[in-house]
Structures are given as structure tokens and as C-alpha cells.
Amino acid sequence: MNKNKSLLILIFVLVVCVAIYAVVLIVSKTNEDTGTGSEEESDTQIDIVNITSPVQISIFNAETEETLNFTKDEDGNWIWPQKTDLTLDKTFFDSIIQTVKDLNGTHEILSPTSGQLKEFGLESPALTAEFTDENGGKTVLRFGAKNSYNNEYYVNVDNSTEKVYLVSEEIYSSFDFDILDAVATDLLPQIKENLLQSVTMSDGEKTVVCTMYTSENNKAGLERFNYEWYISIDGGEEFPIDTSVAENLTALLTGMEFLSCKSVSEEGMEEFGINESDLTLTVKYTDTAAEDSEDKYSYVVLHLGNTDDNKYYYATLPDSDVVYLLGGGAYYKLFNYTYEELAYTHIANININKIDKLEINDGESNAGIVIDRTGGDISYTLNGDDVEYSDFEDFIDVLKSIKASANTKLPEDDEDKDSLPQKDDSVYGKEVLAIDFTFTQAEGLESDFTLSITRFNEEYNLVSFMGRDTQLISTDDTDKLVESFHSLL
Description:
By secondary structure, the protein is an alpha+beta fold.
């Protein structure tokens, strides 16, 4: 009796196992057919279609309800009939053609039911891509829904109900684009730093001119000491630009670029503020290919509109309605920041590696420092005696660290004179410290520069560079500098 009972239990277990195995086979087959199961993608790619040399491409996007038509001309360039003068990106279309030249899928679903076709989104496809060859033959790819399990898309060819495939999200994305993605971005000149001359921004009411001074274009009375960019607002006196702004500006101009295309229409120019703005950006630079001609300079001219959240301008080239986003926020700073925000506030920007000699005088003591770089070793002498580099470096660091006070412009340079410090005639002009620098430029030329500090009033002292009054600094900062000078002696 027990033996029969055990046999019945074994038979029951066997039946259950067979039933479970049958269910697994059915589910596996169903998942394979629908592409919704957990089966991993096969290493073997399934050939879908081979489209080799299309001359027309048409993309319909159901979400935007827009159709993009493109035609290939005799020279192999792609044309958008709605705007035939628009230059399209050849590499962009080469990538599309490479995709359909050997289009592969990961799964193949044979003889799907009408219910499955609806489930796959192929009754109303999200994207339709039509390719026409030179003989008029057409191939249509219809992309349906996204498979939530493996993030792939259903697609069929020529509306076939016999086969449906699954393709990668990357392939689907190749056809999900708008006209802005297909535009060949205009390239701006890549200007070497030593060829930059000036940048001008003007809207007809305000004009800002930034000039880069080098050993080649220094003017009489405008000698610079390790400064490069100087700025003038509405024809006012030039002043050096803050280091961070100057470095950013140089980087932008030596790598000028449009970041992205934003519009290709007149409506877009209005949307991004180009039509309503008279603001222009003009970059002047030396054209090495035209140095022998009468005008050796070339110019980049852009029309600017609104800015984005990063204060980057929207821009167009002259006689163009293609709107781009221009890289860099330094342009906005140049045109919109105040003198106090733009001015370089340190009294000296010194590269210690270029200094050869210093003559320092505070009215009581004199010091002559000579830096000898011959023979590979660097030595420092003060009035003929050796001096430690650290002591010399400390003095230079103090000099470099001193900033102008909050009010840097002198009274004669500002309309609201009462708001600025007033000079005290009883102490004005008395010498506090005079420093003569001699340094060798990269070209091997020696240049002499003079920086002097004189009394202005009880609270401020006046900094003059090459005889030009430039900034006001506090008497406390002046005392620090004089104290550092005395520590050298």
C-alpha cells in the first residue's frame, strides 16, 4: 500500500515538472516572438535592409508633425528645398547613409498579429524614414514604440506585416532630428594670440573698444608693463582689464566658435533679439596672408541679439538669418560691466622671470637690484651684495598683491567728482616710493618702466605709471610696500 502511494506521489511530481517545463517553453517562445521578454540580445545581428546610394531622404516625425525633405545635388551636396542657400553638414548625412547601408537588428519577429503590430506602435509609427535611389526606387523604414524592457525600437520595412525587427536606441536616434541638427555650422577664424589687435562692441549709443598692446603696436605714451588688454568705454581713457576677464577674452578670441545653431529663419532672428538689436562685435586681427598689401588687417563681424542664461550672446554673420549661440560670457562682461567691475585693480602685474633690474627709492634709501641669469644659475645682488631670492620675492609679492582702493578713477576722469577722493594740496605730489623696472622682453629687447607712488591726501596715495596717473591706493598698503622694501636693505 505504501509502495503504491509512493509511486503515485512520484508520478504526480513528474507531471507537475513536465507542466512547468511546458509553461516555460511557451513563455520563452512568446517572449522571443514579441520581443518583450528577458532574453538577452544575441551576439548575431539580423540583417534588415541595405540602402546604398540614396539621392532623396524624407523624415516624418509624428510628434512634431513635421516632414524634412532632402535632395542630393550633382556635386554630392545635400539640399533642403525650403532654404536652398542653407549649407548642410555632409558628415551628418554620411552618418545616416552609413546607418542604413547595413542596417541590423537584434531580434526578428515573424508574422506578427494585427494586435501585436498595434502594440508595437507600427499602425501609427513615431518616425518614418523614406529613401529614394537614383532610379526612383523607394525604401521606407517605419519606427514604432520603444520596448520598455530593453529600450529598443520596433521597426518594419515598406510597411511589411511579415517581419518586425528590434533595433537599438542609437539607430532610432539617427532619424530623430530637426533641421538645426543638419546645418553645417559656420566656422569662425582661429586667430593666434600674437595676431589679435582689438575688439569693438557698439550698439550705436555705447561703444567699448578693447585693444591688445604688444611690443609691435605700443604707441608713444602708452607703454605697458606686462599688461595686454586695455579697454576704453565711449572714448574715455584706456585702463587695463581685470586679469580673469582678459584671460577669458584671449581664450575666446583664439578659439572663436558657434556652439550650436538656434534658428534658420527670419522668425528666429526676431525670437533671439537679432532684429531689434544694433549691437555688433568686431574683431580686428593681423592677416598674415595680406601683410604686403595696403591693409594687412582682417575683421570678424557679428551681429548680436539677446543672451541665454549663461550670458552667451545669440549671433548672426552679416547678411545671414542663421542664428547661432556664440560661446563665451566675456563679451557680455565687456559691454555691460562697469569700470569698477572691469578694471585691473592691482597696481602692478609683474612676471618676476622677466625682470633684470630694479631701482627703488623712497626718498631716504636707494636700492639697485640686479638679476643675473647667465650660466643657467640665477643670482641676485643688492647694491653689489648678494641677496636671498626669498627676500626679493617677498617684496615682489607685496607689490603684486596691492590693489587699488574702491574709488580708482581720479576726479578729473569722472563727472561725479564729489563722490571721489579729493586731493590735499598740502601733501599732494610728495614722493613716497619710486620704482624703476628694467626687463627683457621675449624678443630680447630691454624696456624700462617707471612706477611711482606719491601723496594724494591723508587716506590715499597716487600711483603713476610711466608718468600717467592711474590709481589710488590706501596709505596702509603703501606702508606695507615701503616696509617690505626696507626689509631688503
